[in-house]
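Input.
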Amino acid sequence: QFLGMRFVYLEAGSGAKSSVTPEMVKTVRHTFNGFLIVGGGIKDVETAESLVKAGADALVIGTFLEKGGSLTKLEEIAKAIQSSK
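Output.
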């Protein structure tokens, strides 16, 4: 942030079995006021919601979509994110 960084991307890795923990997101959010992006291992509504509640501004769910994630489930994730903000 003090070096001019406006974005931070926390990533568990493409196709990760689990996501970055909400505790890690909270820790980074506590020290960083910029735009916080979290990705990797986000496969369900509960995970997405917990990461947004912990302080994520945006989620990357590429593998979910690549592996045939349904539009219905994507809509559920989007609604959970919107209601968490």
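The first strand starts at residue 7 and ends at 11.
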